[in-house]
Write a structure and sequence with these properties.
The protein has helices at 36-44, 46-55, 57-67, 80-88, 158-168, 170-179, 201-205, 210-220, 257-263, 271-274, 285-298, and strands at residues 9-11, 20-22, 25-27, 29-33, 69-72, 106-108, 111-113, 123-126, 138-145, 149-150, 155-157, 181-187, 223-226, 232-235, 243-245, 250-252, 275-277, 309-313, 317-321, 324-325, 329-335. By secondary structure, it is of the alpha+beta class.
């Protein structure tokens, strides 16, 4: 049990593959009200739960750094507004979703829908907004409506992916380090709900003015091109695909390589062209197969319950989305 939390919460465990242990450390850490008395303490007042967060913030952050992700289960978070208040209790600065590819809708406060891609679409593993310079450090996900079938938000520790890929394909890892990566995306003229990357340039940059959109785009990417159909093509600068987490000294698989190669596909985009090494050379399909297998092998797949909140260290953990049978409603908040 984490020090300082004995009177308020307890750790709970789930069977594999919902929770795993790596080098003696569970992933993710799961916290729940401690017993019937403490559970009633939380249920009686959401404000008391928020006070607990504020009082235990340094301890929670230490546990997040140690474990990479925390699942809060059984707390009195029953609606999007509760979730927004819960996130704000951490006193983190919200990060606007500028430059991201996924279709999203603002719900309340700083809370958005998660990727609104069709339910039969699998969203591959990625670090949130790894393709832009300003990415969130902390992510929060909230289960408003739990799916009855599928719909997990799988998580995987980035450093473990790096270590495994060094073992399996050191040449590929070295090339990533030396050359970096570039992301190319064609943004539709208006949101396209049929695509997992269907966020239109207007929503992406928060304006319908082309000159303003150009200015905002060029703050995030290396070059842009307006196409005849009104779509906007963006090409990032060369970005690192492997980053050291200066807090721990560990190397992280901090990129969206597999997410782009497997997921950036629609009538405007081709995965093979959307992700390349920094010099423009393509990724090897067989290597992508190996990488995808590694990610799935190391991942945890906990099943959502109504009211669950997951806090993810975006520098340490990748996430994705399994396909599902509706209904399902997962909300998100991004923090600097």
């Amino acid at each position: 049990m984490p020090e300082g939390q004995k009177c308020s919460v307890k750790e709970i465990t789930l069977p594999e593959p919902e929770q795993k242990k790596f080098d003696g450390t569970v992933f993710p850490l799961i916290l729940s009200p401690n017993d019937e008395i403490e559970n009633q303490f939380f249920i009686d007042s959401t404000g008391k739960a928020l006070s607990w967060v504020q009082n235990e913030l340094s301890n929670i952050e230490a546990q997040l750094l140690k474990h990479g992700a925390i699942l809060f289960r059984g707390f009195p978070i029953t609606c999007p507004s509760d979730f927004d208040i819960f996130v704000k209790a951490f006193n983190y600065e919200a990060l606007p979703y500028v430059g991201g590819a996924a279709p999203r809708t603002l719900v309340v406060g700083n809370v958005f829908t998660s990727n609104e891609a069709p339910p039969d679409t699998l969203i591959p593993f990625h670090h949130e907004m790894a393709q832009v310079p300003n990415f969130p450090n902390v992510l929060f996900f909230y289960c408003d409506v739990a799916p009855t079938e599928g719909g997990q938000t799988p998580l995987v520790l980035s450093n473990l992916v790096y270590q495994r890929m060094v073992q399996l394909n050191p040449s590929f890892v070295n090339t990533l380090k030396e050359k970096g990566v570039k992301y190319t995306r064609v943004l539709p003229n208006g949101d396209d709900p049929t695509s997992p990357i269907g966020r239109g340039w207007q929503s992406t940059y928060g304006t319908s003015n082309k000159e303003e959109a150009e200015k905002k785009a060029l703050e995030l990417v290396g070059s842009i091109e307006w196409l005849d159909d009104g779509c906007l093509k963006t090409i990032t600068r060369v970005l690192p695909a492997i980053r050291e987490d200066t807090r721990t000294g560990k190397e992280m698989w901090f990129n969206s390589v597999i997410a782009v190669y497997r997921g950036w596909k629609d009538t405007r985009n081709s995965p093979e062209k959307s992700i390349t090494f920094g010099d423009g050379s393509p990724m090897d399909p067989k290597t992508m197969d190996v990488l995808e297998n590694v990610l799935n092998e190391l991942a945890i797949d906990f099943r959502w319950k109504k009211g669950d909140v997951v806090m993810v260290d975006n520098r340490q953990a990748l996430h994705g989305r399994r396909s599902f049978v509706p209904p399902r409603r997962i909300l998100a908040a991004l923090c600097k």
